Amino acid sequence: MALGAPDRxxxxxxxxxPRRHWEYVPASHxxxxxxxxxxxxxxxxxxxxxDPNDPGIFRPLExxxxxxxxxxTWRESGYPGATGVTRRxxxxxxxxxxxxxxxxxxxxxxxxxxxxxLAEAPPSDKTGVxxxxxxxxxxxxxxxxATGSGKTTVMAMLIVWQVLNKVAYPRDRRFARNALIVAPxxxxxxxxxxxxxxxxxNYYDEFDLIPLGLEDRLRQGATCHVRVxxxxxxxxxxxxxxxxxxxVDKRGPVSDERYVRDVLDDMASAHHFIVINDEAHHAWRTSxxxxxxxxxxxxxxxxxxxxxxxxxxxxxxxxxxxxxxxxTPFVPGGARNQEDRLFDWIVSDFGLEDxxxxxxxxxxxxxxxxxxxxxxxxxxxxxxxxxxxxxVHDDLNRKVPAQTPLPSLVVNAYALLGTDWAATKRQWQxxxxxxxxxxxxxxxxxxxxIHHAV
Length: 454
Description:
The chain is an alpha/beta fold.
């Protein structure tokens, strides 16, 4: 089915594996609805292209695609090699009848299945699958999930899987009782408190993730510890910094044992724990002295000090496995490589297009029904690239009061979007959730002007 533009973006159920996907046809500027799932991958800008309509080049993620097929076979075969606890968890998470009010999305189940498969599937099933590392002393595995697709819930499932298995099989070195979760800022750290068992609103209860009869194993304080820290808690003063410090404080460098106590606190005695990096694109290694041109010194420090802190914890206590979650797990390009590149250790992928087509995230809208003359140079709608319009771009990059009128092109665009929203609201009469229109502005002053205009 070829269309000038898709009349509907949502073509899959959020609870089932995607069966169709949209593909753009650059030659005809049309979209085709294809049967089958979109391969794991990402789109890279065409080198040297300055065309704003450039569709880019699709780059498949070979490792994630290979693992995806193996996991599907493993699922269909009833999870051979999995422990009894793991099989019970997977069956429970899949069963819509056993937990009808807390159904999990397919992307959430596939992500946790992938991490479990790497740990528990028979070795023969994993022939030819080698997950690269980042050059450090502990293993990393990354689940690439679109923002809004529920990765925090997957983190909770990961902890349940690890802890319940360790309780049932205490000598099994594939599992851990303790988890350290590292957040990129204080806001995210506060949000991730839902992963601490027993806290109000925790995800284990909210999403009914633990089968009946197994709840107490996670909630007992002696059973496990889950600690959430901000990445800045991993920083320590180096010898060079201490030597350059003025004043009477002449304390030497912090020992590994003191560092562990400061960071891990009540789980300082834990050995072979798991690490979960949220927004893991903030945590990557770089060569000594190297700094990607696109980043400032603070951003590079965050990435490298985050990893350096984990290295120190690993040296003192041993990190069993490190699990990365991010929608954009890129390592910024350096001086010789200007292109960003994805983490080599991505093992599962459910990207933004997949999330849109499954109805998991908000649907983007671009105003193209402008009922006006096309741009004289390109014969394309000015509204399609509205921000790049010279009058709009310059106007929206000013520090002006909220009462300052918006450019007429922007006002007309909101009038059309508002008309579409009102029509949708009428169509949704009786629906418990009304349609919502969300605007993302380039700066706070623009947001204030939009609010005032509306």
